Amino acid sequence: MSLSLAERAGLIEPSATLAMGAEAKRLKAQGLEILDFALGEPDFDTPANIQEAAIRAIRAGKTHYTPPAGIPELRQAVAEHYTRKEKLATEPGQVVVSNGAKHSIHNALMAVCGPGDEVIIPAPYWVSYSDLVKLTGASPIVLETTEESGFKLRPEDFLAAVTPRTRLLMINSPSNPTGVVYTREELEDLADAVLETEVGVLSDEIYEQLTYGDARSTCFASLRPELAGRTITISGVSKTYAMTGWRIGWSVAPPAVSKFMADLQSQETSNPCSVSQWAALEAIVGPQDSVTEMKAQFARRRDYVMERVARLPDVTCAPPGGAFYAFMNVSRHFGRSLSGITVSDSTSFCMAALNTARVALVMGSAFGAEGYVRMSFATDLETIERGFDALEGFLAG
Length: 397
Ligand code: PMP
Ligand code: GLU
Known about the structure:
Layout: H1 16-29, E1 35-36, H2 48-59, H3 72-85, E2 95-98, H4 101-112, E3 118-123, H5 128-135, E4 139-144, H6 155-161, E5 166-172, H7 184-195, E6 200-204, E7 231-236, E8 249-252, H8 255-268, H9 274-285, H10 289-311, E9 316-317, E10 325-329, E11 337-338, E12 341-342, H11 346-357, E13 359-360, E14 362-363, E15 372-376, H12 381-395
Parallel strand pairs: 1-13, 3-4, 3-5, 5-6, 6-7
Antiparallel strand pairs: 2-8, 7-8, 9-10, 10-15, 11-12, 14-15
Helix pairs in contact: 2-9, 3-9, 4-5, 4-8, 6-7, 10-12
């Protein structure tokens, strides 16, 4: 008899972003040249001052278990960031440091959702949201938004979706995969709608520092005094400081929620990596010039991507105000034969682009938005230029 899996195993798929990233790497390992825009992770090295802080921590013997919710210095620094910069009075006890923002989201959902509950997720959404909700036994209620409305959830659509079972609304601005950044006023309207209900909010602000032009990110919990008691804010160092491999993210939540999340972590991982926590502390409190430099490079790439997308035939794309993604509508090409392959949906489009043009993108269906493909521009300009040249050839048929 073989060991059978729990029912839970049928609830989730492997992360499509990681899967496409792995497929691109597999082809590269075979010696093929792949223009890789699949994975959303900065191509920069972690800044030198952060590397040095980690080396110092190792040499100083900071290599033991830490408190489950993180080292006090880091929790304090995160709390100060929200208190000072976002004007959201935050106690270190409300901060739980986890193994990446993805882990923080998982723990947060475990804290507040369970079987029978509903969680409202505006689509397009980041690939892991719906599966992480399903793992808790709750049901994702996906609300479509349109390219014409800037992929933004309207308060009236949120209110219409609320039922007595709704526990949470998940929002993500700047957004992965669309790059959309809600204005402060739009989030205030959404906040007022939330406050008409009993619904809590999980606000994923991992791209908070990566905005372009006039776009500014807004800390949702700071918008109204009543929101702090029902909002879980998620962020971390992965994107801002090019630290995806270090696995440090955090949550700021009402004290009882944070206590549960810390207890859960104490049972599940003991603590996030000690050395990474010291590195993250340096990231937050140390010099920020490397962030300014990386952001300037992302802004240049973003402008170039917009220029080139505009020249792609029958492709549209809402200009990203933040993050590092272009979410391109390629649906006008469905039904066509491209490089001898009939393309019928975003998956077949991505597979054809990978196998013939050697361009790795992620299918919109993974983000709850068929008809689109996501390009990460967290890569160098030369690769982006060659990627668009290859895409132009591909779309020419
Ligand atoms: N939220 C969003 C919207 C993301 O794009 C990502 C991607 N990494 C995460 C959370 C997870 O971040 P981390 O790598 O810190 O787990
Ligand atoms: N968040 C990144 C992305 O969307 C990294 C992959 C992942 O964490 O799933 O590509």
